[in-house]
Amino acid sequence: MALSTPPAIRRLPSITKAHETFYDLMTNSPSTRITQGPMEELVQVLFSKGLKANGRDEYGNPPLHLAASFGYIYVVDNLLQNDADPEAIDGDGLTALDRIEALFEQAKSDPEKSIFNEGTLIFCRNAISHAIEEQNSH
Q1: DSSP 8-state secondary structure symbol assigned to residue 14
Q2: Which pLDDT band holds residue 30 (cuts at 50, 70, 90)?
Q3: What sign for the dihedral angle of Cα 84, 87, 93, 99?
Q4: Are 37 and 62 in contact (CB under 8 A)?
Q5: What is the Cα Rg of the chain in Å?
Q6: Is residue 2 situated within a structural domain?
Q7: pLDDT tens across 75-114, in order?
Q8: Which domain holds residue 121?
Q9: Which terminus in the chain has less CB density within 10 A, N or C?
């Protein structure tokens, strides 16, 4: 399954500045990425400024999808702790788990081009899978 970044969907109206900023932070090029600790602090600031764990950016992406797609494992964990829906569908019709599985496939088919190590993908997959199990057990 090929992933597009950003999803090729219509731009959504009425996106909060916090969601725009979150999208911008998540999608920085890997060479200029902010490290995990400061990113987690920035996400807390964005929550205080109106970021919603189940909100959407202008492309229809929930924050969880972006954090998982770009390997921010602590942000994934933080979003899940703030009630992000682990089964939410993005603008491409994919769940965050679908995106992680696609990244696994990409990493297997061309490991030299993968920006993620297997541990990052496994953490994200396990955290999201656990959240789905928790959600479905209630």
Answers
A1: S
A2: low
A3: positive
A4: no
A5: 14
A6: no
A7: 898 899 999 999 999 989 999 999 988 888 888 888 777 7
A8: 17-136
A9: C
pLDDT digits (tens, 9 = 90+) for 41-83: 778 888 888 888 898 887 888 999 988 888 888 889 889 999 9
Q: 122 in helix, strand or coil?
A: helix
CA distance 59 to 76: 19
Q: Is the Cα dihedral 103, 104, 105, 108 positive or negative? A: positive
Contact status, residue 13 vs residue 60, Cβ threshold 8 Å: no
Q: What per-residue confidence (pLDDT) applies to 104?
A: 83
In this structure, are residues 54 and 85 in contact, taking their beta carbons and an 8 Å threshold? Answer: yes
Structure tokens at 47: 């929550």
Tell me the one-letter amino acid at 94.
Answer: L
Tally the domains of the chain.
1
Cβ atoms 107, 118 nearer than 8 A: yes
pTM of the model: 0.73
